[in-house]
Amino acid sequence: MGDATFPGAGWEGFIATRFVPLSDSQCQIDLIPDPQVPARCPRCRRPCSLIHDTTVRRIRDRDLFEYRVWLSVPIRRVRCVTCGVGREALSWLAPRSRLTHRLRQHVEVLLTLLPIKQIAELTGLHWHTLKSLDKARLARDLPEPDLGRVRYLVMDEFALFKGHRYASVVIDAETRQVLWVGEGRSREAIRPCFQWLGPHCEHIEAVAMDMNTAMDLEVQAWCPRARVVYDLFHVIAKFGREVIDRVRVDQANQLRHDKPARRAVKRSRWLLLRNPENLKGEQAGELKALLDLNQPLMTVYLMKAQLKELWYARTERAARWRWTRWFNMAQASGLAPLIRFARLLKPYAEGIIASAAHRLNTSVLEGMNNRIKVIKRMAYGYRDSDYFFLKIKAAFPGNPR
């Protein structure tokens, strides 16, 4: 096209002189310095009339109609009498950047709405470029937690990749803000969280978690006032796996000569694990018939219900009495899986009893884990764990106190 000038197009200090179509979907706009606007020193921001040298740089701007816009920009290095030589400061372009502020702002809005893969197809920008923009945005915009007001924590783990690789997450139980995320679930992996909390560890009163010994020991080492509270869901799930399933399999093996009875026991797993209020249709009748005919299954089923009651005690004294009664009943049951489980659970009894004083659980984190899976699925997985952890923190900024 012929030469023309387009002042006021958003490129302060420059004038557009030519619009050149490069293809059906791309164009180039040539810029020249505006003689009425002096270049400025990048350090002191003072006008500089001495130009050291000039380099033409190709810059992406926001799309114009159906065109992807490229700018041909002569970037000058100025010689400041105070600061020396430096590349001129531009209000619409960050140092060393190949994207205008206008395009960056547009992309940042898209990043809050769409997966990176779709934005890459829409804008023509590389996946890594978009990831860098998003990572910088998240680090800039994430709200700083008020650690001085944190009193209760919830800790849990989630699968990071396939192959038993995990990450640990810590939230403020009151605001539900994700405070910290780190790769691994060992004591060494969790320790940076408490190092980051620093003196605020003194204010922590209780921490909810599953029966992860590494988390337990690290809390005791860093938070002298904090009480560990073990989550009901994890303990009952462990009881289902290690006691109910084991007794059910043993009973099925003893009934190998009675095929109908053996089949009924083998297929009863979900009847035994499901809460009574969640049974549908004839399932309640099937469960009653099964328990009436099989005393060991009846015992472990009732012991599961009694174990749950420990978390609903009104006082620690009542919880301790319930625990002692439950433990003695388990030892007197004569069922090896139940006896073994009760003995393994005994060192964790104080964390169960503490639930009477601190009504904490990890159920909120279980819900968060589902959303974390969605975040991971939308991106088809993350190769940068730090970026993934920033996405998690941004998804759970917390509620006002």
Automatic annotation (TrEMBL):
<dbReference type="Pfam" id="PF01610">
    <property type="entry name" value="DDE_Tnp_ISL3"/>
</dbReference>
<dbReference type="InterPro" id="IPR002560">
    <property type="entry name" value="Transposase_DDE"/>
</dbReference>
<protein>
    <submittedName>
        <fullName>ISL3 family transposase</fullName>
    </submittedName>
</protein>
<dbReference type="InterPro" id="IPR032877">
    <property type="entry name" value="Transposase_HTH"/>
</dbReference>
<feature type="domain" description="Transposase IS204/IS1001/IS1096/IS1165 helix-turn-helix">
    <location>
        <begin position="88"/>
        <end position="135"/>
    </location>
</feature>
<feature type="domain" description="Transposase IS204/IS1001/IS1096/IS1165 DDE">
    <location>
        <begin position="153"/>
        <end position="392"/>
    </location>
</feature>
<feature type="domain" description="Transposase IS204/IS1001/IS1096/IS1165 zinc-finger">
    <location>
        <begin position="38"/>
        <end position="83"/>
    </location>
</feature>
<dbReference type="InterPro" id="IPR029261">
    <property type="entry name" value="Transposase_Znf"/>
</dbReference>
<dbReference type="InterPro" id="IPR047951">
    <property type="entry name" value="Transpos_ISL3"/>
</dbReference>
<dbReference type="Pfam" id="PF13542">
    <property type="entry name" value="HTH_Tnp_ISL3"/>
</dbReference>
<dbReference type="Pfam" id="PF14690">
    <property type="entry name" value="Zn_ribbon_ISL3"/>
</dbReference>
